[in-house]
Specification:
It is built from 20 helices and 9 strands. It has 511 residues and is mainly alpha-helical. Among the domains are: 46-240 and 471-510, Serine Threonine Protein Phosphatase 5, Tetratricopeptide repeat; 259-343, no CATH class. Strands 7-6-8 form a 3-stranded antiparallel β-sheet. Helix 6 runs parallel beside helix 9 and helix 8 packs antiparallel against helix 9. Mean pLDDT is 92; it is low at 1-32.
Length: 511
C-alpha cells in the first residue's frame, strides 16, 4: 500500500517567539507583583541588623560544654554528649559553625558594609568591627581554622567557597582590629543608641570592652607564643578595662514576647529538662555534675544556694546540706534521681536573666595572671584575685533578689580562701583559674577555652564506654559534613595544615 505524504504548514516561528516573549513578560510582571513583600525593605537598616547580630551571637552557644567543663551531666548518652564524650548522632559539634555564618557573621558583615565610607557613621563602624571580633573569636576557638577573611561575602561578592584562614592569622587580625577600631570613635557623631543591646551606644564602655577582649585574646596565646601574648597584654592594659560592675557587658532579656528576647540558656534548659520543675520529670535526664557541686560544698562557696536546688516534695530547696551532684558515669535514671541538684529556677532558669558576655570577674582574674607573669604592675596579684572573686560573687545580684549574696558572706569566703602570695607561680595560676571556672559559670564556652590554655581547673576525664575521644576531654569541635561536600578544596587545606577533623586535634594556640 502506497502512503501519501501530506504537506504540513510550517508555523511562523518568529510570531511564536514574539508571542512567547510577550507571555513571559506578562508572567514576570504578574510574578513580581504577587511575590513582592510589601513589608520588606530593599535597604539595610544598620540598627536593626546590628541588634539581631548581638542577639544571635549571644545565643549561639554549644550547650554540651556545660558537661565537658563538669558543671552538668545526664544519664542520657545523647543529651550527655559533653559529659560523656559520646557522639553517635545529632549535630552538637557543628552547631556554632552552622549557626554562626548565616546569622551573626553575615549580619555584622552587612552592618559594616552599610556604614563604611560615611564619616557620620564612624562610631557605628567602630562598634561593628569590635563586635565582629567577638563573634569570630568564639568560633575560631572552637574549630581552629575557619573562613574569616572571605566569610559572609556570598551575598555581596558571590564568594561561595571562602578560604579557611590559619588561626594564627585570624588572631593577629582580630587583635589589630581591637587596637584600630576604637581609634575611630568620635563623640560628636551618632551611635547605635538603643539598638545596641549591650551598651546602648556608650562609646567609653565599648572602648573598655575592646581592651578587655584584647586582654582575653592576648592571654590565649601564652602557650603558643608568650612574647606575642605579653606584647598584646601590655597594649590592652594601657587603656581602660572592664574592672567595675557598671561596665559589665551583658544582654538583658524579657520573660515574654518572641524567643529571641528570652535568655537563650534558660530557654534551652527549660525546654529540654526543667520545665516541669519537680526534680524528677527531666526528659533529658539533666542534673548538676558531682565535680561541680562537691567543689562548691567543700569550699563553702556562697554561690551554692544561688545556683542550685534540690526538689523536696516538688518544691525547690537551696539548703547546702541537701545539694548533691550526679556522677557523669551514670547511664540510666537512678532510683534517687530526684535527690540530685539542678539549676535554681529563681536565678539561672529565669527567662529574663541577663547574659553576661565580659565581666569584671574575668578581667580582674586575667589581670591577676598577668601580674603573676610580670606583665602587669599596677596592682599586686593578690588584690586583683580578690577583686575578681568579689566581682564573681556580686554579679549574681543581676539575676534578681535570689542571687544577692550578703557582703559578710563574700568577705568570709575571701578570708577562708586567701591568695597564695607565697606560692609558686604555678600554684598561683592554678588558684586563679580554678576561681575563673567558678566565677564565669555558666559561660562554659569561654571556660572551655581557658581550660585548654591553662589546664585549670584540674578535671578528671570521664572514661565512659563507647566515647569518641579515647576517654579524654574534647580539644575542639568538628567541622560540619557539609563543608567537606560544598567547600572541599578549602576544607582539605585546613585539614592538611591543622590535622584531622577530630575532637582531639588541637587548635593553633592549644599546641
Amino acid at each position: 500500500m502506497k502512503r501519501t505524504l501530506k504537506m504540513i504548514p510550517r508555523p511562523n516561528c518568529r510570531l511564536a517567539l514574539v508571542s512567547a516573549v510577550a507571555l513571559l513578560i506578562s508572567c514576570e510582571k504578574g510574578f513580581e507583583e504577587v511575590n513582592t513583600n510589601p513589608d520588606a525593605s530593599t535597604q539595610i537598616i544598620p540598627e536593626y541588623v546590628f541588634s539581631k547580630s548581638q542577639y544571635d551571637a549571644a545565643s549561639n552557644q554549644l550547650h554540651g560544654l556545660q558537661g565537658a567543663m563538669q558543671y552538668t551531666t545526664s544519664y542520657n548518652e545523647i543529651a550527655g554528649f559533653g559529659a560523656k564524650y559520646i557522639f553517635n548522632q545529632g549535630t552538637a559539634p557543628y552547631t556554632v559553625f552552622n549557626n554562626g555564618y548565616p546569622n551573626e557573621i553575615n549580619e555584622i558583615g552587612e552592618v559594616i558594609r552599610a556604614v563604611s565610607g560615611s564619616p557620620e557613621q564612624v562610631n557605628k563602624l567602630a562598634v561593628a568591627r569590635i563586635w565582629r571580633v567577638y563573634c569570630f573569636h568564639r568560633m575560631t576557638d572552637l574549630y581552629g581554622e575557619i573562613p574569616y577573611s572571605e566569610a559572609g561575602r556570598g551575598y555581596s561578592g558571590s564568594v561561595f567557597k571562602p578560604k579557611y584562614d590559619r588561626q594564627e592569622e585570624i588572631y593577629r587580625n582580630m587583635l589589630n582590629e581591637l587596637e584600630e577600631a576604637p581609634r575611630l570613635f568620635d563623640t560628636a557623631k551618632p551611635t547605635f543608641g538603643g539598638a545596641d543591646v549591650v551598651y546602648g551606644g556608650d562609646i567609653l564602655k565599648w572602648k573598655r570592652f575592646a581592651n578587655s577582649l584584647m586582654l582575653r585574646l592576648a592571654l590565649r596565646l601564652t602557650k603558643v607564643n608568650p612574647a606575642l601574648a605579653e606584647s598584646w597584654v601590655r597594649k590592652a592594659v594601657s587603656g581602660e578595662l572592664i574592672t567595675e560592675a557598671a561596665d559589665i557587658a551583658r544582654i538583658r532579656y524579657q520573660t515574654g514576647g518572641q524567643d529571641i528576647n528570652k535568655n537563650p540558656l534558660a530557654l534551652y534548659l527549660l525546654n529540654t529538662d526543667y520545665i516541669r520543675a519537680d526534680g524528677y520529670s527531666n526528659p533529658e535526664g539533666g542534673k548538676y555534675q558531682k565535680t561541680f557541686i562537691d567543689f562548691l560544698k567543700t569550699t563553702g562557696d556562697p554561690r551554692l544556694g544561688v545556683l542550685s536546688v534540690v526538689y523536696v516534695n516538688q518544691k525547690p530547696d537551696t539548703t547546702a546540706a541537701l545539694q548533691k551532684g550526679m556522677a557523669s558515669s551514670v547511664s540510666s535514671k537512678p532510683a534517687d534521681f530526684v535527690t540530685y541538684s539542678e539549676p535554681n529556677p529563681a536565678t539561672l532558669l529565669r527567662l529574663d536573666a541577663p547574659m553576661l558576655l565580659l565581666t569584671p570577674a574575668e578581667v580582674n582574674l586575667l589581670l591577676a595572671e598577668a601580674a603573676v607573669r610580670g606583665w602587669y604592675s599596677e596592682a599586686p596579684a593578690a588584690r586583683l584575685f580578690e577583686n575578681g572573686t568579689r566581682a564573681g560573687l556580686r554579679q549574681w545580684a543581676l539575676y534578681g533578689s535570689a542571687g544577692v549574696i550578703p557582703e559578710s558572706r563574700i568577705e568570709a569566703y575571701l578570708k577562708a580562701h586567701p591568695f597564695r602570695s607565697g606560692g609558686t607561680p604555678g600554684q598561683q595560676l592554678e588558684q586563679i583559674h580554678t576561681q575563673f571556672w567558678i566565677a564565669l559559670f555558666p559561660n562554659a564556652q569561654e571556660v572551655f577555652s581557658n581550660w585548654r590554655r591553662t589546664g585549670y581547673p584540674t578535671l578528671r576525664p570521664n572514661v565512659y564506654p563507647g566515647n569518641s575521644t579515647g576517654g579524654q576531654i574534647f580539644r575542639r569541635m568538628l567541622y560540619p559534613p557539609t563543608e567537606e561536600n560544598l567547600n572541599p578544596d578549602e576544607y582539605g587545606k585546613a585539614i592538611a595544615r591543622q590535622g584531622p577533623n577530630t575532637f582531639m586535634t588541637r587548635v593553633w594556640w592549644d599546641k
